[in-house]
Amino acid sequence: MKLINHINFSTKHQPQDYYQAIYSSQSYGTFFIVYANFKTTEDENNYYVKEIKLKIINYKGLINIGIENASFIKEFDADDISLGGTLKITLKALDKDEADVHCCDENHPFPKNNSYLFVDRKLSKMHPQGVNFENGIFDEEFFYRDGINEDSQGNVNIASQERQIEVNIDDNQYSAGLISLGTPRCPRSRNKII
Question: What is the pTM (predicted TM-score) of this model?
Answer without folding.
Answer: 0.79
